[in-house]
Amino acid sequence: MDAALAAALAGPRGANPLVGAVILSPEGEQLATGYHRGAGTAHAEADAISEAHKKGVDTVGTTMVVTLEPCNHVGRTGPCAQAIIAAGIAKVIYAVDDPHDPAAGGARTLRSAGVEVLSGLALDQAFDLNRDWFDAVAAKRPFVTLHIAQTLDSRIAAADGTSQWISSPESLADNHGLRGLIDAILVGTGTVLIDNPRLTARDADGELSHRQPLRAVMGLRDVPEDASVRGTDGRFVHLPTRDPSEALRMLFDQGVRHVMVEGGSSILSTFLQAHLVDELIVYLAPTVLGSGTPALNDLGITTLADAQRWSWDDAGGGAVRMLGEDLRLHLRSPRGSAGNAGNVVQNKNLVSRSEAAEHLTGGH
Ligand SMILES: NC(=O)c1ccc[n+]([C@@H]2O[C@H](COP(=O)([O-])OP(=O)(O)OC[C@H]3O[C@@H](n4cnc5c(N)ncnc54)[C@H](OP(=O)(O)O)[C@@H]3O)[C@@H](O)[C@H]2O)c1
């Protein structure tokens, strides 16, 4: 399970959880490893099975150890329970139950097909791996990534409003790569009126990427008819609200499961203040302005004890990376923050410790 948890960390956070899987021989030898590379790609179980088959390994009679209950539904990819049965795997040990109703039931399907299933191994670590994702699922809201491209002194634009580009070309390319993975990108009306951004995902040559996010603008003012963000592909939505929870509800209702909030300061601040951010990606340029638009406005924090203390996130390429001249910082939401704690506890109860112990010791 340690190896499966480590493999899971290679994937990106977002609409889907991080999941890792390891296939073991009956003697306990590690035969193949797989992980999930994000929405629309193979699940960890299918990835591990395909790696095993590529290596010429016979999976009949093997054991699979996986960090999340195998799914039972046909989403963007086929159901993992069926793939496991088809591969002849004899035993599955997973850590934590899948909280999705449509996906739940993978364990039952496996048992009905004669596969031995145990659950609850390394439950706490597997839950912690995806605690923000579990929280978003329970709250029926999209997973929220906050993106900030800033100078060393935390400015996102100069005093005259210029902000293109604070980041290195490598950071911009990284950001466009992320835009191609998410379901929606969100900015405030202020950014649209000042910068007139396109908010599309583009490759190094400026060509539109195959997958484009929904472009969402939040705020009460109208979005001008000739604003670039409207585009011509119909993938634009105006969210006439200043309430971040309401904006997320509107996006969720449109099928959005992962949104990247790109700015400006007012929108970044309102999401942070509401504890509605799961993941923070900061591109830090070795540049000093001394004046201009600060990345964040007042968050209502007046004493150090109330500071939001974020954790470094090793998932999806690591916590700290150089991108050209910039530093890319990757962080997870503060543990037990006011907006998250309740749901985390509620979710954890989905798999009770006694149930887990019973599964682990009691076999079927
Ligand atoms: N470097 C970067 O990563 C980056 C990214 C984006 C933007 N920027 C820069 O950010 C600057 C714009 O920042 P900004 O703060 O003026 O614009 P903003 O955050 O994009 O939009 C602010 C507007 O959003 C609306 N709004 C919606 N919900 C709100 C809430 N809860 N609280 C306050 N306002 C809310 C308000 O307009 P309504 O009256 O319409 O409701 C407000 O005036 C620009 O200079 C741009 O270049 C930098």
Write the layout of secondary structure elements.
Layout lengths: L1 H7 L11 E5 L5 E6 L8 H11 L8 E6 L11 H7 L4 E6 L9 H7 L3 E4 L3 H7 L1 H8 L4 E8 L4 E3 L11 H11 L4 E5 H7 L18 E5 L17 E4 L4 H10 L4 E6 L1 H9 L5 E6 L8 E2 L16 E2 L7 E4 L2 E7 L8 H8 L4 H10 L2
Parallel strand pairs: 3-4, 4-5, 6-11, 6-12, 8-9, 8-11, 9-10
Antiparallel strand pairs: 1-2, 1-3, 7-13, 12-16, 14-16, 15-16
Helix pairs in contact: 3-4, 6-11
The site of NADP nicotinamide-adenine-dinucleotide phosphate has 27 residues, from strand 6, strand 7, strand 8, helix 8 and strand 11.
Short structural summary:
Helix content is 28%, strand content 22%. It is α/β, with parallel strands linked by helices and 364 residues long.
Sum up the structure in keywords.
22% strand, Cytidine_deaminase-like, 12 helices, nine-stranded mixed β-sheet, binds NADP nicotinamide-adenine-dinucleotide phosphate, APOBEC/CMP_deaminase_Zn-bd, 28% helix, EC 3.5.4.26, alpha/beta, riboflavin biosynthesis, elongated, five-stranded mixed β-sheet, 364 residues
